Each structure stands twice: as structure tokens, then as C-alpha cells.
Amino acid sequence: MTLKSPAGALWFYRLMTQNPGIKNDLVNWFVRNITAPNIMRVDTPGFVTVRQNYRGEIINQRNVFFSEMQLAGFESALVEEFGEEGKKIAYSIGKNFGYAYCHCFSVPQLGIDDEGKIKDFISFFSAFMGVTWGEFLDLKYDLKAKAVELGLGDHIVCRRNGLGYMFSSGDIAGGWQYIMRDDTVEGVQTECIGRGDKCCKVICAPAGYIEQKGHQAISVAARAQFEVDSTYLEMNRPRPLQYSKASIKELIAANFFKFENNQLTFHDDRYCFTGIELLYILEQFAKDDERIGRILFKTAFDQGEGMAKEEKSNDCSTFITDILSAIGFGDTLISRAGGDFQVQTNYFPYLATYGKIDYFYFRGLLSGLLSGFSGKKTELKNFRTDVSNGYLKLELY
User: Fold this and answer.
1) Within a domain: residue 163?
2) Is residue 174 part of a domain?
3) Residues 6 or more apart from 172 whose CB is under 8 A from it?
4) Domains of the chain: total
5) Would 155 be classed as within a structural domain?
6) Residue 326, H or E segment
7) Which domain of life is it from (predicted)?
8) What is the greatest pairwise CA distance in the chain?
9) What are the Cα distances from residue 292, in Å, to 121, 164, 288?
């Protein structure tokens, strides 16, 4: 096999082969179809991108790495704060994310594309996600019934809290609703490793089908979508950084992040590859309800503070800049004015709704990082945005 990107291919090959539960044909598929042609780029400082959509169009779809502990803590806090409504909020976030990501990725749809393309995409999805979010132990579907049933191993987030509304039933249901073009499609997680089961099982189908199977699903119709237009392409175009040269690939080589057992970790916290659609949908929910905003800020703060306390021996501004660059948040400069911290991030992930959110997650993450390093609680409560230079600049203070 001739590889166009041998270093990147070897990196992912080592990751996959460390987990004997993943078959060699899946490893080879990932190297051949994703790493070798540079479809997924994790070697560009400040940017984590998927270079092409499913139809082969160049889009440089922007992605970031989220902390699994933060996402699990956020979901758990929603349920604790809102009760049953919190489950619905978490499910709605996940479902809208799955729907929006499929829209940006130009996934084939029933009634528009032929069924062969949909079947091909399902194979692509199960392989791709099977080596980034966990194993797909079993997958069966019926396009006439608009139903899919999945068995998942070591799946992200729900293994931590036993809930699974965002990252098991929710996001998969959102994607399946998009593919089936049916607003009645819902998802339900019937088994979960985080609840003591041997694996996670999810059913996505029209609500009536799920009820016939003896399960009750939350009812939410996903609506979120963002356009990958010329503005998106320009705003998210990878550019050379001024303050950092760090990518995930380089930080693994430097032993900051680790690959073990098919997981990317930083001090035992797993990091999850997601589209920036999730970031913006989280922010939209936080904007609409101040209680969700507080939860999002606090869980991001806890993530940042924990990272900083583990790395107290490192230089604050260098460490923060490099970590944020590696996980896809652009180019960050930390400075002080009158004793107060100020943060400027160039090339922050852009979507068209950038002016309608309050950046709870990023403010919380930076506040926690700065607090952990300085030993003094810092909260970045204010922000400014600027897109006049053809990219999103975010200032926090």
C-alpha cells in the first residue's frame, strides 16, 4: 500500500492495533480511506478538520476535541438540575447535533439519494465512528421500517454516567432522522455499560416502532443546521499560527496526550472528536436558559482547572496556548493588564450564529485553566468578537 501521509497513517495504525477488539479489516479500512488520503487532519496546529464531505467536496469541516469527563458531567448536572426535563434537554442537544452534522457532511437521504448510497454511508459511518468513538459490535437496519439497531462497545460519555441521552440515543437519532427524512424518528438506549450492562444498545426508528418494541422514547424533532457556504470555508480556512505550533499529533509525540486502548487521553480523561456544531448547539441552549449556561461554564471550568493542576510545572501561557491549539480552538494569546488576564483567540471555530452565543464553554475552560495555574480564582465574564479580517477573533476578559 502506498500512503500519501505515512506518518499520519502509522499514527492511526498504532492506535487501532493496540485494541485487539477492533478487527484488522477495520484498521486497514481506516488507514486506506481516512488517513492515507488526508480526509481527517489532526496534524495542523489550531485546526482539526475533515477535509471532504461525504460527496467528495472539499469543505475542511471544522472539528474540536471535547473532554469526556466534561460532557458526562454536563449531562449529569442537567439531569440533577432539571430532573426528567434535563434528560430531554440532553437528548435534544445530542439529536440536534447529529442532525446538524449530517447536514454539514452532506449525508445521503432517503427519497433523494438511492438506497445503495444510504447503505454505503451506513457502512462508512459504522467504520469511521467505530474507530473514533468506540466499537460497533453489531448494526442492523431496515430502510422500509426506517429502523436501525446498534450494539456499541466502550462508547463515549454514557460509559461514564450511565445516561446516554446526548451521545448514544440523541446524536444517533438525530443523524437517523436526517437520513430517513422523518421527524418522527427517535432514539432510545435500552442497555448501557455505564449502568452495568455488557454493552450499549440503541434503537432509532419512528416512535411507533420503538413503542412496539416495548420502549418509550423522548419526543424531539431536530431542526438545527448550519450551511457550509463560502463564508464558512473562508472563516475556517487553516492558517499558520503566531502563538503556537502544536497539533494533537505533536502533543502525542511530546507525551502530553496518550493513545492507549483506542482512546485519546490526557491524564485519564478521554477526548472525543466532534464537529463544531456540538459546540454551537451547546452554546445556544446555554444562551436560552441561564441555568444551562451556569452548568456549561462550571463543567468547562472544572475541566480547565483540573488540566492546569496536573501541569503546574509548565509555563502557563505556553501550555494553555498549545493545548487549545491541539484540540482545535485556533491560536490563543494570554496576557495581563493591570493584574487581570486577557485572552485573544484568532481563528476560533466559526459558524454563522457566532454573534448569537455567549461562549460559556470557552470562557469556562479558560477561566479554569487560568485559575488552576495562578492559584487564584479567575472568571472571564466578558467577550468581544471580530470577523473583519476574514476569520473569527474572540477576546475574553
Assistant:
1) no
2) no
3) 98, 148, 150, 187, 202, 204
4) 1
5) no
6) helix 316-326
7) Archaea
8) 65
9) 34, 18, 8
User: Mapped to the 3 state alphabet, what secondary structure does 270-289 carry?
Assistant: EEEEEEHHHHHHHHHHHHHC
Beta strands in 25-168 (DSSP E): 40-44, 47-52, 58-67, 135-142, 147-153
**Side by side, which strands form the sheet with 393-396?**
331-337, 340-346, 393-396, 383-386
Asked whether residue 355 is assigned to any structural domain, the reply reads yes
Q: Enter the C-alpha cell of residue 93.
A: 442537544
Whole-angstrom distance, CA of residue 46 vs CA of residue 64: 10
Report the CATH number at residue 254: 3.30.1380
Name every residue whose Cβ is closer than 8 Å to that of residue 318 and which is 6 or more positions away in sequence.
none
Residue 291: predicted pLDDT: 98
98, 107 Cβ separation under 8 angstroms: no
Cα distance between the two ends of the chain: 51
Domain of residue 348: give its range.
235-396
Name the least confident of 174-178, 223-227, 250-254, 323-327. Answer: 250-254
Q: How many CB atoms lie within 10 A of CB 375?
A: 9
The band of 221, judged by pLDDT with boundaries at 50, 70 and 90, is very high
Whether 387 contacts 235, CB under 8 Å: yes
3-state secondary structure at position 48: strand
